[in-house]
Design goal:
With 162 residues, the protein is mostly beta strands. 4% of the residues lie in helices and 43% in strands. It contains 1 helix and 9 strands. It has a 5-stranded antiparallel sheet, with no helix packed on it. The chain starts with 7 loop residues before the first strand and ends with a strand.
Amino acid sequence: MHVRRDVIQKVEVDVTVAAATYTAGDALHTGAILLTGCFQGHNHGGELCTITVIDQAENTTNGALNLFFFSANPAASTITAEAEIDFADADLDSYCLGFATVAATDYVGVADNSIACVRNVGLHLQTDNVNDRNLYMVVRAVGTPTYAATTDVRIKLFFRQD
């Protein structure tokens, strides 16, 4: 009998946000976020299985988010904090792997912050280069979250290895 032993890789990023209220469709940050070490060993792909968002702003924010994933830096796109994202067609065609949504209802508020957890995401992601273990992510506000400090958002991504 074969017993499957899943290898899970955790990647954590601090998203530098503006201490402001965002408009729906705005990027939370400027430029794509490099996700270092998503895949281990010779694996250059896997499945995003869980997303955890730590929102240290007042627990009423519960900002719904779209997380877009790319196999390479979407450098031709316009990604500016507090402005609508404009993905270049070439970046979408060549590098976009998909997206996942963190809904406002995924959050649980405690005292002065909140935590969102999206389980069983099931998004298969793969780098373009067998030697590359990194991905890129762009985070977009779905609603109108307000953040009090630039350090209010931390995202933890859990990848099951291929």
